[in-house]
Design goal:
Blueprint (H helix, E strand, L loop, with lengths): L1 E10 L2 E11 L4 E5 L6 H8 L7 E6 L2 E2 L4 H7 E4 L11 H11 L5 H11 L15 H13 L5 E5 L7 H16 L3 E5 L3 H7 L2 E6 L2 E7 L5 H13 L3
Parallel strand pairs: 3-8, 3-9, 6-7, 7-8
Antiparallel strand pairs: 1-2, 1-4, 4-5, 9-10
Helix pairs in contact: 3-4, 5-6
Length: 234
């Protein structure tokens, strides 16, 4: 599904990614953990075609990220720190707008269904500018999946969410997984990573320090490995 070989990214004479090698199969839900400045969000932005790598190879479904970036971009649903929503638009207007960009058929019905799924039907015609951080994040989640992407790229998706919104987000990720969607999620929230992911990648100093599968939502395993590799606790 995703093949990354010897990926590097340099900015302002600083090497942020230092030769990433990574293979991710279809349907995997992968958490990317690591300290601030480790290169986690940079890796996600490279995959989302928002920034160009300095060197290395990235292939998605056999397509070269550099040569076929337009086709590759259609496969992604990207949820960055900012919502990317238009704050003077309503949830329905935002989702219809982004859905049309992707050529979604019957886009208004699809948008209404997603607003309902994220629990905001009562506010469907209210401008987003009046929403709380958690409400905005819910609509941003819907925006990221309006076109039913094959791959979701989520950057700290649980930040600022209350428990209800966290549950909604987790259910979205798990339901997309059932449809064969692959998810890469940058997070500092070990609990949520353990709850919904089946694989953990720990990044440190721009390199992959560990890569392992988890079973039975093993939060203790995630915490122990992170403490040893990143915090130096043995």
């Amino acid at each position: 599904m995703i093949e990354i070989k010897k990926l590097t990214k340099q900015a302002d004479n600083k090497l942020i990614l230092r030769g990433i090698d990574l293979s991710i199969t279809q349907g995997e839900t992968v958490a990317i953990l690591g300290p601030n400045g480790a290169g986690k969000s940079t890796l996600l932005k490279v995959l989302a075609t928002l920034i160009k790598p300095t060197s290395g190879l990235v292939k998605v479904n056999g397509l070269d990220l550099k040569k076929d970036h337009i086709e590759v971009k259609k496969m992604f649903g990207y949820l960055p720190h900012s919502s990317l929503l238009y704050d003077h638009y309503t949830p329905l207007e935002n989702l219809v707008f982004f859905g049309n960009l992707y050529g979604v058929k019957d886009v208004e019905n699809r948008a209404r269904k997603l607003v309902n799924e994220v629990g905001l039907s009562f506010f469907i015609n209210e401008p987003v500018k009046n929403f709380s951080r958690g409400m905005i994040q819910r609509i941003a989640i819907a925006r990221a999946i309006i076109h039913e992407p094959k791959i979701m790229l989520l950057d700290e998706p649980h930040t600022g969410l209350d428990q209800g919104a966290i549950t909604i987000l987790n259910n979205v990720v798990l339901s997309m997984k059932e449809k064969g969607c692959t998810t890469l999620m940058v997070t500092h929230d070990f609990k949520q990573a353990a709850a919904i992911c089946d694989r953990i990648i720990i990044v440190k100093y721009g390199k992959i320090a560990d890569d392992f599968k988890i079973n039975s939502q093993s939060l203790s395993l995630v915490s122990e490995k992170y403490q040893v590799l990143v915090e130096g606790v043995s």
